[in-house]
Each structure stands twice: as structure tokens, then as C-alpha cells.
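User:
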Amino acid sequence: MRGTAVKLVPHWHRDTRMTTDLRRALITVAPPTLLVAVWRWRYEIALLAGLAAILTVGIISVGILPTIALATVITLAVLVWPPVRQFVLNRAWCIITAHRVRVGCAEAMIYSSRGKIPIILWTTHQTFGERVLLWCRAGTSIDDFVTNRGILTSSCWAQDVAVLPDLHHPHLVTLDVIRRPPHNVTSGPEGSRATDPPDWSAWPGGEGT
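Assistant: Predicted structure:
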């Protein structure tokens, strides 16, 4: 009687976490399309285009010297007047944080099997830093952000990053990028933050980018 051959499967092959890590290690981040790249850098593009247009109109209308003088006065007002300076800094940090979160997702391998990182829907200024709302693509989840909080924190040049779930929309994840502690939340399980998730029902209202 012929015996039945049994094929032994190595333990590492049966470990789904290891196969997932190996699969992700072999997948690189997909480069953005032209439209996506323009969208991600829309504020910088708009700022440069706006400044170029204003300077061109000013030089044509009143000349080079008056235009330079007016630009100097506006720049000094931004640097000296605290409310204006703080407003500009807040907006700048919202833009910077969005870029740094994308870098953190790429470095932490938080992307789909096609190399697509989560979509940043909105970034708002908060008293502690910035709050970022992300849309997780298929293949990514809040667990990826909780596991890689350290990488995200260093990528965002922050003191900490709190990961907040959305109880009604599992594909939405909120990151609180904490730059000015203390933060009015307490530590929760698995490195997340035990607090009520932010109310995004009015999105995209509010200040942010």
C-alpha cells in the first residue's frame, strides 16, 4: 500500500504577518500622476503664480522701485504684526505637515498593494499642532498608523502623533500631530489615544488646508 506524501509548509510561510511584510517590502510607492502632483503642491504653485502675477502687474503699472517698496512694506507687516505672522505660520505648518505625513506613510510602508498611500482629505490648525484627516485605501487601516506612530512622529518633526479612529467610518483615520504638549487626551490601548473622535460632519469647513 502506497503511503500518502505529506508536504510540510514552513512556519514562516504560514505566518500571514510575515508574508504581508514581505509583500509590502517588495512594493514601492507609486509615483504620483501629474494631476495628483499638482494637487499636492497646489498651495505652493498658487503662491508662486500669484506673486509673479502681482509683481508683473505692479512693475508694469507703477514701475520697479515702487513695486519693490510696496513688497517690502507688506513683508515687514507680515513679520512684525503678530496676528498676521501667526496666521501665516499656522497655514504654513498645515501645508508642511501634509507633506510630512505623506513621507511618513511612504517610510512606514503604509500603502496599498499598488503602492498608493492614504489620501489626505483635510489638515487643520489646532492649539497642539495640526490635525490631519486621511482616507485609507483598500489594503491599509488604522492598525498601520498605530503600529508606526514612531516613524510618523519623526517624519512630521513632532513630539508625538495620536491616532484617532472614526467610529462610523472605519476607512477614515485622524492623526493629531502634537507639537505643543500637553495634549488633552490620555493614553489608550495599542498606543492610540482614548478620546472621542473629532467631528468631521462639517468637512471641509473650518480653517486648514
